[in-house]
Amino acid sequence: MNTTLQTLALWLTVVWPLLLAIPTLHSRLPWPRHLALAPALLLLLLPGDATLALPWLLLGSGFAIDGEIRWLLAMAVALWLMAATLTKPSARGTTLFMLTLAGNLGAILATTLTGFFSFTTLMGYGFYGLLIQGGNAASRRVGHRYLLILIVADLLLFEALLLAAATSGDLRYETVRQTMAEGPFAQLYLWMALAGFLLKIGLWPAHRWLLAAFRSTPTATALLLGGVPVAMGLLGAVRWLPLGEHALYLPGIALLTLGGAILGVALQRRQESVPPPAAVWRRLELLRQWAENRGQTGLSWLAALKQYKPPLPWPKLPGFVAGWGINITLFVLLGLALAWLAG
Amino acid sequence: MNWDGWIPPLLLASSLLPGLIIFTLAEEQVRLRTLLNLGGALVKLALVGWMLWGVYHGHHYEMRLALLPNLELVLRADPLALLFITLSAVLWLVTTVYAIGYLEGSPHRSRFFGFFSLCVTATVGVALAGNLITFLIFYELLTLATYPLIVHRGTEAARRAGQSYLAYTLGGGALLLLGTVWLYTLTGTLEFTPQGILDNLGAEHHPTLIMIFILLIAGLGVKAALVPLHGWLPQAMVAPAPVSALLHAVAVVKAGAFGIMRVVYDIFGIEFAAGLGVLRPLAWLAAVTVFYGSLRALFQDDLKRRLAFSTISQVAYIILGVAIVGPLATIGGLVHLVHQGLMKITLFFCAGNLAETLGIHKVSEMDGVGRRMPWTMAAFTVGVFGMIGAPPVAGFISKWYLGLGALEADQGWVLVVLAGSSLLNAAYFLPILHRAWFRQPPESWPKERSFGRQETAWMLLLPPLLTAAMALAVGLLATLPFSPLEWARLVAQREFSQP
Amino acid sequence: MAAPFIDLPWGIILILLPLAAAMAAFLWPSMAKAVGLVTAVAVVVAVVGLGWQLLDHGLYRHAIGGWGAPLGIELYADGLSLLMLMATALVGFAVSLYAAAYFKAEDAARFWPLWLVLLGALNALFLAADIFNLYVTLELVGLAAVALAALTGSATALGAAMRYLLANLLASLAYLLGVALLYHGFGSVDIAILATRIAPAPVAFAALGLITTALLLKTALFPLHFWLPPAHASAPAPVSALLSALVVKASFYILLRLWLELFAPLGAGAGIDALLGLLGAAAVLWGSVQALRQSRLKLLVAYSTVAQIGYLFLAFPLALASSVAVWSAVAYLALAHALAKAAMFLAAGNLLRFGGHDRIADLDRAVQRLPLTTAAFALAGVSIMGLPPSGGFVGKWLLLEAALTQGRWGLALVMILGGLLAAAYVFKVLGYAFTPAAVAHKSTAVPASMEWAALLLALAAILLGFMAPLLLPLLGIGEPFGANGAGP
Prior knowledge:
- The complex is a heterotrimer of chains A (about 350), B (about 500) and C (about 500).
- Chain A has 16 helices and 2 strands.
- With about 350 residues, chain A is mostly helical.
- Chain A has a two-stranded antiparallel ribbon with strand order 1-2.
- In chain A, strand 1 (about 50-55) and strand 2 (about 60-65) form a beta hairpin.
- Chain A starts with a helix and ends with a helix.
- With about 500 residues, chain C is an all-alpha fold.
- Chain C is about 75% helix and about 0% strand.
- The longest helix of chain C is centred in the middle third of the chain and has 34 residues, at about 235-270.
- The interface of B and C includes residues 177 and 181 of B.
């Protein structure tokens, strides 16, 4: 009984927002944005793990919920509920909202690389729409940059995906993580996926658009933009790359979602320019130092990081925090990846 | 009595007879003409369904008719033929509905639909051809049947486009004829056989075979619009939208691509051809075409011209799939034959809707058109994402298998081509979407027609929605039996000696 | 079928019936049309009967009055004769149908007797067994043709007819001289007897030269084609059709017969086959280019005939190695061309009648206003271009196959190029048939029978593309091209 219900809920969590994306449908419902989250809420409330394998769907996909994913899903649902409440009921773009939502929830629940890739693509283009629908010149500029990065990121991930498929044939997360580490394309796969996700998250060198984006969007969008893409990028990295036990990371990502969202809103509220968090050459310098220390074990780059002391622009705290958040994520990912390579 | 042999000719007759009868109808006999058109299309679809089931269960559909000394007209439904036939039968039905709506009230409809049916007959003939000479016959018939459709409007521009079309295609046909006869003098047979018919020719014939290959591919490459033989395609855009749709998705361009497949797989045999060393240059040519088409598309303001250049680029994927050499790449090429058809026909339907409803022909006029015609543009959006290769639309599956095939065959450079092409596709398609969905609509449209509460006539709206839905479905449900992908797998199995 | 039907002397009927009908039409002009139509149908029936006989008994020989060669007149029919007779009967029938509606009272009274004479003469020519009878019938054909060409009596027509007449007379003279030389040298005019006696002597070569030149002139092979375009273009449409489809084939038929039976060993030795091939190639290219340059429809079609005749001569250099296939191809091409070209001229006549002019650029939506005629022109064009499926394609395929098997790339390329040029000029016409003219013209209605006559022929030319398995064995009756597979 419970499993049937869970299976249904797994289905509906993704399909229901997609259905509601149709204008003739959502325009007839009260509170369509909130309603779209109903199956996801239901799924959260039903106890126990559940898996829904869909081998016939898009080269083999599936949805699953377990302890860790539940955290992430809960955070996402909270965030989207908040955004739904913040958005004016009359506002346009319900369709985009629904598509983006479906993309996000689908990416969280997906059990295969292809599923994850598909849903994040949907989400990415949805975000592009949300960003740009305000219609002013600034948002359009930001939107274009975002789009370009999105496309490049998707291409990189697509190629990484191909490498994975060519190596393992089975695209479930665990299988890929295991086989890729020994496969012939390990390095290439790692760098492509990493680069793709870094771009998707909006990290260096793509961070500028992210920061600029907050200034020109409505609060709800800023909230989502701050929380969702970064989290999804990290989630992807964790799932695609053999970085370690993912149980460790998922709650962290959930927290990051929240933090990012708050940050996003804060940035949006301040309406001021943000300094570039750090000069590019600085980071290159760090990398070089890390490379020198490569013989040492573990995360030796931390030592190098300590030497770097930028002036603290206290009055511009959100921007600063954002910049550092991005920096730290970058280096965590890079470090983990390189550690994996070295080991 | 076994009637299986009669189904292929019946399949031809299901569009030939309605076509011939339609020629004799007066302009006013709209209902009878519509009945004939749709009736023929439905009968054809039913026959195709029957054969799909039959071939899947190992039935053999073949009809032979003596044509020349030692040469026969052979109609045979093998899996590869059925892949193409199914596409054309389905899209013919959809396009017929669309054309009826599109041409409502315009002159010379009997002539139009007559040739339309002939065109489909020729396409099905191309698909069913069981040897090269039968293929050649229908291939030339296709050229002839398409010409009146291209010059249908009777303007000076249309006449010129028609001349240019003929100059290219008949020239190509001549090369094909030369290659075919030459091949025949060597082999004494032209039968399409899985893994080719040339195995027992000795090495001393290889230079000749290379020349023949070049002749055949050049002849077929004209219709497939391989660079530098693509010049006619953008010009042929003067034809009415249903014609462009059919030309790009099903009939002419696809006949060329299909012919290349037949030559590579069933005349030369893919492994033999790879051994000759002719496939590598073909792959390069296809790659160049992919880029060239995309680059040219970037700079077209005319929507249909942009789509035309996009076709040049997309059809080259099919050739690329053939030329990479490998089961997976073959699947990619084969499946793209179908997928590209579904996606491109959607785009052309939508372009036709914009032109018919709002008088929009240029990309620069498309600001905010998504608000006026949301359903049309939704279908267009699906088509566009398919072209870019975004999941889960059909194009993703094609690129997926092409990419896997490239990795399998150790040809990593193809991945770069795929990525670059996707990037370019995005570069010339996404701005259209941006305009349509996010720009402010103008005060008034160039030439608006009102359709009451609907955004356009339902006969114009339904076809693109249907094809867009199909493009989504074949992507999402690619692994189900009878999907294009699974069928392509079936075909690919026959063409490689070790699976 | 009852035996008596088969056993009628069809050969004689084929000759005498049209001649008698011509007499009747001349004597009773008011009945001319009816007589002509009935005769045309009867000739079709007679050809079918003759075909039946051939299938049953093989080779047909009939000595008129019981006097056989070398004294009397003998009729002879094999597959090749039959094919030419079929072409004549078919084209003759369609043209008669067409002419019945085309000619008004006065012209009709002149047309029918002349045409029936021509028909009889053509039939006699295709049935003749000796070179003297060939001469007589050829002369008769020529005279009737010239008279027909001059039928309208306009200044251009008379001028063209005069040129035609002169060319004809010159050719006849040369031919007669050749015949006399042969008779003098080898003591017979019967082809079969001559074939056993002829030897590579100077007199034989002189006869070969004279006769070949004469027949080339009559067949209008480049560069001896000068008289053809004006004559064919200025004649009334049904006459143009007859001239282009049948009359030039008559002289070609004689050339082919003599070549096969008498001259092949001589000519090949002297390189004449190569020369003929070269001239044929030149004709294909030159005629096509000229056709493409014309702005008048009928001239275009006439030049197309010049080009198509070239194809027939491309076979000569190929025949040495694979005689049967090549000559079958040529016969097939000749038949296809007869049907297609007649259809084209009839269609052109319709367009001329309809618009009052034959300027190509002013065809003014003919495709919509005269759909059957345009369809006829297009379908005939398909055969002329040699696109499948059509009689032209079959012929061209066989010829191309022979050329490539023998590695004769030059000839193969000429064939291909000729096809492309043909496509260019045919579609030049068709393209303008879709566009409206700058200035609207008055139009005259065209009777349905005229449209259908053209379409019928064109359809026959297309159908010919599927008839090869039927016709090629028929063509082989009596082995006109020598034993299967073996060249001389």
